[in-house]
Amino acid sequence: MYIIAGLGNPSKQYEGTRHNVGFDTIDYLAEKYQIPSSGLKHKALYGKGVIAGKKVLLVKPMTYMNLSGESVAELVSYYKANPDDELIVIYDDINLEPGSIRIRKKGSAGGHNGIKSIIGCTGTQNFKRIRIGVGEKPKGWDLADFVLGRFSKEDRKLVDEAIEHAADALKMILQDDINGAMNQYNRKMPDPHKDDAEGNFVI
Questions:
Q1: Range of the domain at 133
Q2: Which of 19, 42, 112, 165 is catalytic?
Q3: Is 133 a member of any domain?
Q4: Starting from the edge strand earliest in sequence, which strands make up the sheet with 2-6, in order?
């Protein structure tokens, strides 16, 4: 059983915010693979299904971002999952442009409080993760205000495309091809805000 956890904040006021792209990805996966919600358990909304021939648990922790690890650790324990092999976390990254994703086999929290909580509660940082770019915080902005804000129409379109790419990357990971997913998706994406003299994207 693979636990696929998308991070975000519960309640309607946070829907569509930068910090909730993990939730958005879980919703997209649930619709794409017709995985119905099974309700609330272990402080998370969850649904059981199959992706790429593998049994999965799609999870949205309802603990708020900073306490995501409480829910994820409970699920790991209940399902006797090995987080190093069977946990995949999807979340926002302000160090990536909207439209970009990055796949990692393991790593530090990188300043993300949700990941910091998961590492602290599970006792490992060796779980796989898919990071979805939400763009860099503008100078002078408060970080919380930025990540809890919503995308421009242009950036929302790019992020929706990135969520589709994240779903495709997840399928590859579940097919034991994380290296292939990294090779395909960890390349630098064009910056949509920077064009060359002929109007083409500059990479």
A1: 2-185
A2: 19
A3: yes
A4: 39-41, 44-51, 54-61, 2-6, 87-93, 128-133, 101-104
Measured over the CA atoms of residue 27, residue 30, residue 32 and residue 36, the dihedral's sign is: negative
Residue numbers belonging to the annotated binding site? 14, 64, 66, 113
Model-level pTM?
0.91
Q: Is residue 195 part of a domain?
A: no
Binding residues for tRNA: 14, 64, 66, 113
Q: In angstroms, rounded to a whole number, what is the distance separating the alpha carbons of residues 3 and 24?
A: 16
Residue 7 tokens read as 């991070």
Residue range 86-143, pLDDT digits in tens: 999 999 999 999 999 999 999 999 999 999 999 999 999 999 999 999 999 999 999 9
Residues contacting 35, CB < 8 A, separation 6+? 29, 47, 48, 49, 56, 58
**Interval 30-47 mean pLDDT:** 97
Q: Any catalytic annotation for residue 19?
A: yes
Q: How far apart are CA 187 and CA 191, in angstroms?
A: 12
More confident residue, 197 or 79: 79
CATH number of the domain that residue 15 is part of = 3.40.50.1470
